[in-house]
């Protein structure tokens, strides 16, 4: 650890002396004279004093998420983990801001900081009542990069770029903290360290990060907020990183804590500690796993919900077994106490922010900010022939589509205090009613065998679905919403509630689909005879609790529907009572304008624990857009979802496309402002929008360099590029000029409307020892311009910003050479550019006479990165015979005669050294008989032939199953 914590033992000795001087009598409640309650003392002094007063059992009790009160010192309970991604979640009605990806699409750090400050205030607003689930340690923001748009949690992140993500997370974090790291409004925790970008088997899959990807990409997203004191810790992720569970990743200490001199409070993800002896099978017992996590840099265990017993027992067991020392506990507890001191918990009146109360929650100021954020974060994707903005005088408007008159919230959202839907916002803007239609079919389901209709209950509580009606009454009618990939939801016409499974029956009692298990999902599977099976899709997982798939059919004498195997499923005749397409077409015909609102349901279309396998718009929604467009050429399409969508032919067919995230309570007002020109669209995409899933490799492939991922390396033609977004005005860029610490460019609004431009600076290194990004964002600035106004935009760029990770020496390097500096409106819309001759260094040829870690290769084939030991280190394992590692541009001195390698494996194998290519001249072969364990290493050697000399590429060719940690040539 850095800085002051190195002297912890000395400070503790002084603290114990202080306690002795105060006398042995401890009052029933803490007195203000205790040093830990004195705000005039340093944070260190206060932490040391309090730590010294705690007994070992008390200290251990603080290691769990639910930290109990310590009455003898007057210390109240403390809880880590209030969710606050885009507002305070799970505590009731609060201001609901746009989803994180929507906030990020504004490219506006100043806005992000104001939103963060509002969320911090509202978190404090609950402190007088302290409802269950509340705490000042916030689990936000998510800074995992949006490397793959199929990731189920795409909505939670900011962007696919570390520079943009770093800037926005730092701004949001500063708002949450209040900007003074010694006096915290709240204590934000960055999620999820590290490389957490797939939900498929998320606790057992390994994210393989070669050093360049780790340093230049994944770590680069986490580092800025920690360095800026805008976050007070990280949450370890569920996945493995290079074969080692992130819960015991030594980088938590060895890397993350080096980014700051302040104490960090690192936490595990929920239930992750139990995964170590559980499905990860990494340690045989919880005691061993928790001990390893504590030593790796975890301070707080999120496990077993509010029951701290297993964690306390595991830590006590680890101490008894000698796996931990009390000093290890003290280190973790000191990190926890540092954050609690800085939060003002022990200050008179609760410190600087102790007086904030519930009046701040959903205040008029915050409602206005929510509208501003929803407006800024929307992106105008297409605007053919200036279709937008619409003329307010053309008031005969139809707003149609499944999202036209509703708002959806996601898993980490707060409860909407009110909901302005798109139809509401447009009606309010026009001052008149608008015609609406959801454009979904209303159907009945009649059992082909019994002739009876499936019916639902009435009233808000609904009732169990049964086969009971002889006629297609309202109770037998259901609205069918298509969410793509065959998944649909059923809303009962009897009460307007959705049908869901409650682990006993199927009941129409849900206002919206939701919950951890979205139990409201179904599929209608057409059979050869024209009937349909109704398949339950609400809990179809990779490893289900029952045999999938399962279907619905009558299971009782009264016809109540239950789960049955396919062979017992009822065959239903589906009858369309009302055509959604026909209704929508009728609604838009003859109108001045048709606004179609389509998109996703955040409880269904990709979310935590569920990646997307299909990025397309739902077929029924696509058909709706086409039908409306045919019926009314004045059609505008709003796509409301949480991620890039492969819009296919619709992108060509419709004249105007506006994208928004699920943007919170003010969605409708923001959209209306944008559609009618009271606001000028200024959002920009933070991800590449691909044309097809075929543009992407496996979601488990984390090597963005080799697999050409993100705008940095993608060589194809995207549907919409990173940084894209249109405006109702136009901007002209002047000449790019070098200034002291970067570049400046004059930007002029050449249109007739005021507008915001996001000026983006990218660099490209023309020649390098290593493969470099095609473009890489290094700076950006959002600038507001009136018509005809010109402003000089300064963008910071220094030589150190050009560094990349040199694997030959494990250090950052800026290479001498020519760099293209590119400035424009997106990664593909470059308006002005120049070259920069940079004097740096020349990376020398590899010197393999030094011990070289195998992971520092330049290229590879048929290998994977694995854990060298359970504590630290990365090795390379061959996944097939003939697997190889390339070590480019190596200088082999004439004196080089021997290969020495550290290898492990359960079977015999070889390490071949070849020159020039994987099949080039063989210079030597080292043999192993096997070590019996992947964690038991031995040293093997091979004499090298005279061919091993000169300057060439060295290849190590490995047998399947062999692990290689280090090697050298001597």
TrEMBL record:
<dbReference type="InterPro" id="IPR002772">
    <property type="entry name" value="Glyco_hydro_3_C"/>
</dbReference>
<dbReference type="GO" id="GO:0008422">
    <property type="term" value="F:beta-glucosidase activity"/>
</dbReference>
<dbReference type="GO" id="GO:0031222">
    <property type="term" value="P:arabinan catabolic process"/>
</dbReference>
<dbReference type="Pfam" id="PF01915">
    <property type="entry name" value="Glyco_hydro_3_C"/>
</dbReference>
<dbReference type="GO" id="GO:0009044">
    <property type="term" value="F:xylan 1,4-beta-xylosidase activity"/>
</dbReference>
<dbReference type="InterPro" id="IPR036881">
    <property type="entry name" value="Glyco_hydro_3_C_sf"/>
</dbReference>
<dbReference type="InterPro" id="IPR008999">
    <property type="entry name" value="Actin-crosslinking"/>
</dbReference>
<dbReference type="Pfam" id="PF03422">
    <property type="entry name" value="CBM_6"/>
</dbReference>
<dbReference type="Pfam" id="PF14310">
    <property type="entry name" value="Fn3-like"/>
</dbReference>
<dbReference type="InterPro" id="IPR017853">
    <property type="entry name" value="GH"/>
</dbReference>
<dbReference type="InterPro" id="IPR006584">
    <property type="entry name" value="Cellulose-bd_IV"/>
</dbReference>
<keyword id="KW-0732">Signal</keyword>
<dbReference type="InterPro" id="IPR013783">
    <property type="entry name" value="Ig-like_fold"/>
</dbReference>
<feature type="signal peptide">
    <location>
        <begin position="1"/>
        <end position="30"/>
    </location>
</feature>
<feature type="domain" description="CBM6">
    <location>
        <begin position="849"/>
        <end position="970"/>
    </location>
</feature>
<keyword id="KW-0378">Hydrolase</keyword>
<dbReference type="GO" id="GO:0046556">
    <property type="term" value="F:alpha-L-arabinofuranosidase activity"/>
</dbReference>
<comment type="function">
    <text>Catalyzes the hydrolysis of a non-reducing terminal alpha-L-arabinopyranosidic linkage in ginsenoside Rb2 (alpha-L-arabinopyranosyl-(1-&gt;6)-alpha-D-glucopyranosyl) to release alpha-D-glucopyranosyl (Rd). It is not able to hydrolyze alpha-L-arabinofuranosyl-(1-&gt;6)-alpha-D-glucopyranosyl (Rc).</text>
</comment>
<dbReference type="GO" id="GO:0045493">
    <property type="term" value="P:xylan catabolic process"/>
</dbReference>
<dbReference type="Pfam" id="PF00933">
    <property type="entry name" value="Glyco_hydro_3"/>
</dbReference>
<dbReference type="GO" id="GO:0030246">
    <property type="term" value="F:carbohydrate binding"/>
</dbReference>
<protein>
    <recommendedName>
        <fullName>Exo-alpha-(1-&gt;6)-L-arabinopyranosidase</fullName>
    </recommendedName>
</protein>
<dbReference type="InterPro" id="IPR008979">
    <property type="entry name" value="Galactose-bd-like_sf"/>
</dbReference>
<dbReference type="InterPro" id="IPR005084">
    <property type="entry name" value="CBM6"/>
</dbReference>
<comment type="similarity">
    <text>Belongs to the glycosyl hydrolase 3 family.</text>
</comment>
<dbReference type="InterPro" id="IPR001764">
    <property type="entry name" value="Glyco_hydro_3_N"/>
</dbReference>
<dbReference type="InterPro" id="IPR026891">
    <property type="entry name" value="Fn3-like"/>
</dbReference>
<dbReference type="InterPro" id="IPR036962">
    <property type="entry name" value="Glyco_hydro_3_N_sf"/>
</dbReference>
<dbReference type="InterPro" id="IPR044993">
    <property type="entry name" value="BXL"/>
</dbReference>
